[in-house]
Design goal:
The chain has one domain (10-350): 3-Layer(aba) Sandwich (Aminopeptidase). Helices cover 25% and strands 21% of the residues. The protein has seven helices and 14 strands. A hairpin with a 3-residue loop joins strand 3 (113-121) and strand 4. It starts with 9 loop residues before the first strand and ends in a 10-residue tail after the last strand.
């Protein structure tokens, strides 16, 4: 097992810039209007000041896992993944917030919750789990996961988000260095144009990058667990299997996965593989004199061998089915921690044709 030495993360507010001209593929969010700029500054200040909650005991042999979900965004006032993570991790409370009125800033801090708890995982025993409910804001979510990862040194990172109303679980094989120009959970900030790079320093040959998992072990166990739960019904008589309709490997790159889920996944995935290198995230399209121009991130810890994956869930999971979804999250954790196969890089050719 890797060294548990505590390593501080270097996450500094970037220096001010007099350059007011945006560069092609060198920005992540549009900051032309006052509303956009105010939201951007609030996000940078929050991300820069954020301090980790999860610290591993250097004398403990318990495995360490980060599990993330998201909160509300746009028309999605509830997010099943945030709700499921809050049921998986004792003490983690889902942030119930409302979108602000008018041009007010949507506070990222109010939408962030992080709790460290120890849970019992079948076949493993006690596992320290850092549960995170993340704001659906461009680059902010990735920065928070990276900071907690530097502090916690996880043996596995399981990231989660919602997709269609009723669909199979999509286990994402990889991520792509590309953003779609759609507003984030604030409804205000969006990439300047579709196709903008998420990590500008990444070379073109790294545009598509596989995630890392013991793929067959995880899928086999989760498929069996989902099948067992499929007949279970909620208070309205709806079967779990009618909402979560199977398990699939989702290929990459694909145009339907360039929103916040992919943003978080690619940044975490790429920085894990490049310890010691500095990357600028959360850049503005139109910097202002004396204002921030991004957040510089550098991981001192080498997490390149740590498995990490993103899972898309059916967004209509609710009620009792959230507990069943949380139990499947635990099955994913158990499957990876007990896997007999070494984690490998995801291959697009592994994707299911009927996705």
């Amino acid at each position: 097992m890797r060294s548990r030495a505590f390593l501080l993360i270097s996450c500094l507010l970037a220096a001010c810039s007099d350059d007011t001209e945006s560069q092609d593929n060198d920005v992540i969010v549009r900051t032309r209007t006052e509303q956009e700029w105010n939201q951007y500054v609030a996000n940078v200040e929050f991300a820069s000041a954020y301090q980790p909650t999860c610290f591993g005991d250097p004398f403990s042999t318990r495995p360490r896992v980060i599990v993330t979900g998201f909160g509300r965004f746009l028309e999605n006032k509830e997010n099943a993944t945030g709700r499921m993570v809050s049921r998986l991790v004792p003490g983690l409370v889902y942030p119930e917030t409302e979108a602000p009125e008018g041009d007010a800033v949507d506070d990222p801090a109010a939408q962030t919750r992080v709790t460290l708890s120890t849970i019992d995982v079948e076949g493993v025993g006690p596992v320290d789990v850092c549960g995170m409910i993340l704001p659906v804001f461009w680059d902010v979510a990735a920065i928070l996961v990276l900071k907690e990862s530097e502090s916690f040194l996880p043996d596995f990172v399981l990231m989660n988000g919602i997709a269609g109303s009723r669909q199979p679980m999509w286990i994402e094989l990889g991520s792509v260095n590309e953003a779609v120009s759609l507003p984030d959970g604030s409804g205000t900030l969006a990439p300047i144009e579709s196709g903008t790079k998420l990590v500008n320093e990444a070379p073109e040959e790294d545009r598509a990058r596989g995630l890392v998992l013991s793929w067959t072990d995880v899928r086999t166990r989760v498929e069996a667990a989902r099948a067992d739960l499929a007949p279970e019904r909620d208070a309205d008589g709806l079967a779990f299997g009618e909402v979560l309709q199977g398990v699939r490997f989702a290929t990459f790159p694909r145009s339907s996965n360039t929103y916040l889920c992919n943003n978080t996944t690619y940044a975490v995935n790429y920085l894990f593989d490049h310890p010691g290198q500095t990357f600028r995230l959360l850049e503005p399209s139109d910097p202002r004199e004396g204002g921030p121009t991004g957040v510089d991130m550098k991981l001192g810890a080498d997490l390149s061998k740590s498995p990490r994956v993103f899972v898309h869930w059916a967004k209509d999971l609710s009620g009792e089915h959230l507990d069943r979804g949380a139990s499947l999250m635990k099955e994913i954790v158990a499957a990876q921690l007990t896997a007999t196969a070494e984690p490998t890089r995801g291959d697009p050719a592994m994707g299911d044709a009927d996705l």
